[in-house]
Design goal:
The protein is globular and about 55 Å long. It has 13 helices and twelve strands. Strand 10, helix 12 and strand 11 form a beta-alpha-beta unit. The longest helix is centred in the middle third of the chain and has 21 residues. With 364 residues, it is an alpha/beta fold. The strands form three sheets. A five-stranded parallel sheet has the order 4-3-5-6-7, with helices on both faces. Bound molecules: fructose -6-phosphate. Fructose -6-phosphate binds next to helix 4 and helix 11. Its EC number is 2.6.1.16. It catalyses: D-fructose 6-phosphate + L-glutamine = D-glucosamine 6-phosphate + L-glutamate. It is an enzyme of class 2 (transferase). Homodimer.
Length: 364
């Protein structure tokens, strides 16, 4: 069943190009994102004045990426709420708020409760769900299915990247319908999204490089992920993935927030995985890299292809293939999944079934 792979997680990492293709392709008509199959009308999108994304864990982290993209393209406010908090927070909702729930299983109790609360408060609900006919899918007004196929490993990988792709499709359609981007621009974005599938396939070949780096991470007690903007959203995901399967304590920090406390934890040989893929904040993140470096951190730096990285800046440099800044999350996700996976393997742990965790959390 594992198709020659040692663990389901590795198999599922490798299934990402196909999962992305299956999720993206059916939603493209004449080069534009199209949700008529899903019944998501332009009128609904036109009436949406605000979006609340709610989910748990990795699915919530996909929401963090979605927020940045949707707000950037449309200037319409988006908030991302942890479902277990949202459901008890007496949230402000109305009929012009679209509540997007994201869930691989479609059965997460807190996300389902958040969805029900949204409906009770008169908001329209759209769910991004992988499992057909699941509770969240059945109870939502609209469903945008991801087509990752079954995900067996507890640590979510392909479900996350297809959730990103669904959010990107949504953002492009939403921006187009709201007349924030032209038809030509929407088509250009779709082409770039399709190109991303090949980029993800290419990044799968980084396994040997990352396996070697993981050998140097396996004995760490604490580890930090830092980044800004989209890179911070990815840092959150990289951190949960690493800690859930390697049991190494890790934290994701917005790079600029380090000096407000956390930098006191950076001492000799503490690994810092720094994501610096966004040109607009590149110099800022690099200055944070220098700060942790000067305190002895072991730095693994992940950048785009278009920057020159001084060898003195980091211990390891992982360079993503050339791509537009908005699309780096797909490639960075694979790198972070590999870091978690190979570090867990190096620690001789049961990658697919980490202790205390269940694949689907149907209790509060
Ligand atoms: C982490 C992980 C969890 C899930 C979370 C939500 O790798 O898998 O954080 O993302 O429990 O699950 P779903 O998406 O099924 O609602």
């Amino acid at each position: 069943r594992k198709g020659g792979y040692e663990y389901f997680m590795l198999k599922e990492i490798h299934e990402q190009p196909e999962a992305l293709r299956n999720t993206i392709a059916p939603r493209i008509v004449n080069g534009l994102p199209d949700f008529s199959e899903e019944g998501i009308s332009d009128e609904l999108l036109r009436n949406t004045k605000r979006i609340v994304i709610t989910a748990c864990g990795t699915a919530m982290h996909a929401g963090l990426v979605g927020r940045i993209l949707i707000e950037k393209l449309t200037r319409i406010p988006v908030s991302v709420e942890i479902a277990s908090e949202f459901r008890y927070a007496n949230p402000i909702l109305d009929e012009n708020t679209l509540v997007i729930t994201i869930s691989q299983s479609g059965e997460t109790a807190d996300t389902l409760a958040a969805l029900r609360l949204a409906k009770e408060n008169g908001s329209m609900t759209l769910s991004i769900v992988n499992v057909k006919g699941s509770s969240i899918a059945r109870e939502s007004d609209f469903v945008l299915y991801t087509h990752a196929g079954p995900e067996i490993a507890v640590a979510s990988t392909k479900a996350y990247t297809v959730q990103l792709s669904a959010l990107y499709l949504f953002a492009f359609r939403f921006a187009f319908v709201k007349e924030k981007i032209s038809q030509q621009k929407a088509q250009e974005y779709i082409t770039l999204l399709e190109d991303t599938i090949d980029t993800v396939a290419y990044v799968l070949s980084y396994d040997t490089q990352i396996e070697a780096i993981s050998q140097r991470l396996k004995s760490a007690d604490d580890l930090f992920f830092i980044g800004r903007g989209l890179d911070y959203a990815l840092s959150c995901e990289g951190s949960i993935k690493l800690k859930e399967i390697t049991y190494i304590h890790s934290e994701a920090y917005a790079a600029g927030e380090l000096k407000h406390g956390t930098i006191s934890l950076i001492t000799d040989n503490v690994p810092v995985i720094a994501l610096a893929t966004q040109a607009d904040v590149y110099a800022k993140t690099i200055s944070n890299v220098r700060e942790v470096r000067s305190r002895g951190a072991k730095v693994i730096l992940i950048t785009n292809a278009d920057v020159q990285v001084d060898a003195s800046l980091c211990d390891h440099h992982i360079m993503l293939p050339p791509m537009e800044a908005e699309f780096t999350p797909f490639a960075a996700a694979v790198v972070l999944q590999y870091i978690a996976y190979y570090t867990a393997v190096a620690r001789e742990l049961n990658v697919d079934q980490p202790r205390n965790l269940a694949k689907s959390v149907t209790v509060e």
